[in-house]
Amino acid sequence: MARKPTGRRSTIYDIATAAETSASTVSLVLNGSWERYRIKKETAERILNTAKAKGYNTNLQARGLRLSRSSLVGMIIPHYRNRFFAGLAECFEAEARARGLTPIVVSTQRDAKTERSVVETMIAQQVECLIIAGVDDPDPLNVLCERATILCVNLDLPGEGAASVVTDNRAGAIELTTRLVSLVNGAGGDPARIRFVGGRQGEFATEERVAGFLAGLEQAGISAPKAEIERCGYRPGAARQAFERIAGEGPFPPGVFVNSITALEGFTAFLGSHRLAPPPVIACFDWDPFAAALPLPVIMLRQNVEALIAQSFAVVDSGVSERGRRIVVPPTLAVSPAVEADGEEAPSPPPGTNRKARKVDRDG
Amino acid sequence: MARKPTGRRSTIYDIATAAETSASTVSLVLNGSWERYRIKKETAERILNTAKAKGYNTNLQARGLRLSRSSLVGMIIPHYRNRFFAGLAECFEAEARARGLTPIVVSTQRDAKTERSVVETMIAQQVECLIIAGVDDPDPLNVLCERATILCVNLDLPGEGAASVVTDNRAGAIELTTRLVSLVNGAGGDPARIRFVGGRQGEFATEERVAGFLAGLEQAGISAPKAEIERCGYRPGAARQAFERIAGEGPFPPGVFVNSITALEGFTAFLGSHRLAPPPVIACFDWDPFAAALPLPVIMLRQNVEALIAQSFAVVDSGVSERGRRIVVPPTLAVSPAVEADGEEAPSPPPGTNRKARKVDRDG
DNA sequence: CGAGATTGCTAAATGGATTTAGCGTCCTGA
DNA sequence: TCAGGACGCTAAATCCATTTAGCAATCTCG
């Protein structure tokens, strides 16, 4: 079967010509199934050698078209600008690569139109599955996937259109609050004055964390906290203003439950213009190495990105994403040096994004 | 031309059958070139309607195979865990989407084997171009691309196998050093005691920044700084140790040139156990909002990720990536609130990753 | 009235890899 | 001697979209 040699990239036909055999044989050999088809060892070797000599590279588009499997897997996230999403992206890639798949991660900046168009593009690229993280409303995206018979999983957000893998926000918040109360007590503060700052009203994660915060206080015997829950959003600036307001109300609270790293960023900015002595104990539902190194007593909760991704792939592997199914993953506690120094408790295990990455000399 | 209706996803053949026309007509209509081929308006509308009704989605693998253009564009970066790489990834995606291309960003954890295999996978997926950022040795990757006739660009690293887009490390370091000296002088410190910490010996960016640092000092009349350049690597822990060592040598220097955000992370950790009064002035060759909000006088240099990406795409658009060509992009200065408060200078423009993202309520 | 133009559309080739049915030759055993 | 098997390989169909050459029917105008 003669075909003219293609412009530059070599194809199985080119190799067939060069090795004086047929394209079918080349394909069989390159896929390793040549023994099953009784191709002579020397023929196989000849083919392998010419393929190597020509720098042959499989055209995965052609293979994908033939086999209706692209070996592409997709994930959408809002952005990469915090450790949680960065970790999700890296874990997802590692997991995909381990399975011989090509990961496509796209950040959608929390824009519903972008989310939709990215999902459509991914479907058009024939991704084999799609993991959806951090969107406001996953339902229409789940519908898109379903119509295209693409398995999808909602990550860290509940949704009724597919299975969801979520962090155990409530239990995490309870644990964090319990630790916070104990540290405040240890420092001689009044735990009833602890405040909650950050997050969005009505948002799933925020409301779960508020519920856990209140439950944690109640378990510590504080059934009616003295002040409002400040769901001031996720912008550092808004959080800073909230802290300014709180500071204006009287003596600064002895402890604060900070919901999200950006709210903590706002607190750091606030600290720039206020010297608080003694510094309040900070419990943050999020993790960042920079924040963990602050000269403040900080306890942080790190979402278990490895487990979240592993569970998502488990759903994909199972072949079904049951609507409304909820898979819950507990977060892990991280304690700042300032807290460790007090000798209160043993340090938590290192919260690296993944093992391999830890060994590397990280750079700026 | 009869074809059996495919399992689930509809193809142009399904639509042709449903709209009682041919696949060619469907293709022509769907691509908008139907007027050129004198397809009746009503036929076109009929086709468009059935396509919409069936939720048709182009199979980009098939199109890519036919046209030998995949509409995929690739980029590799070491990781997403700092603002620079996160920003590169987001800008790259935005730029790709604006051109109707599908971005594939993959993090390779600075592992040469991973880098190689990722590049091979991307080539197999037929990416139309590849941007290589933050690898140790781009040359073999450039060779791989060249053999596959894929245009590639080295980003923020010099390389002889393709064109390179790099930050102007030296000029940036000079500017940063000049500012640092002036702030130290303003605070009554001795600028000759300023130290340089962080980075890797022999690495392109580090050596350029060291040269800029020394040139900046010299311009300020300090030709022989009193102490060593501490190229202690990029790990926070190593930087922390370097700071401990420096603190052990006598009074802490009045200013430090910190090379990279991770070294600054090490400084923050160091600060946890040392109360320095007055705090030293920090000049950091990197940018991070958290660090910028620290209760310290910090000036930071932010690499211009938008321009770096724009220049990389410009090379791609030009159709040639001249070996060894160097395109230099200046970084921009960012000043911390603690410095602004001193009224020294007007604040620099907001260093957001991109305009759209700034409007959004960022989350944790 | 008939050559030539116009209209509206379609058949068929193409891109590269996969995979099955099957072809020709030689060998074995009854 | 001949049916049946082993051996070593290949032709051809298939996946889906694109695009060109060209067909049949109708219209135009000298």
From TrEMBL, chains A, B:
Keyword presence, Magnesium: no
SMART domains attached to this UniProt entry: HTH_LACI (SM00354)
Domain of life of the native organism: Bacteria
Keywords from the UniProt entry: DNA-binding, Transcription, Transcription regulation
UniProt protein name: Substrate-binding domain-containing protein
Sequence ranges of Basic residues compositional bias: 355-364
Stretch list, region Disordered: 338-364
Transmembrane segments: none
UniProt domain HTH lacI-type: residue ranges: 10-67
Pfam families on file: LacI, Peripla_BP_4
InterPro entries found in the cross-reference section: HTH_LacI, Lambda_DNA-bd_dom_sf, Peripla_BP_I, SBP_2_dom
Key word RNA-binding present: no
Organism the protein comes from: Jiella pelagia
Stored PANTHER family: HTH-TYPE TRANSCRIPTIONAL REGULATOR DEGA, LACI-RELATED TRANSCRIPTIONAL REPRESSOR
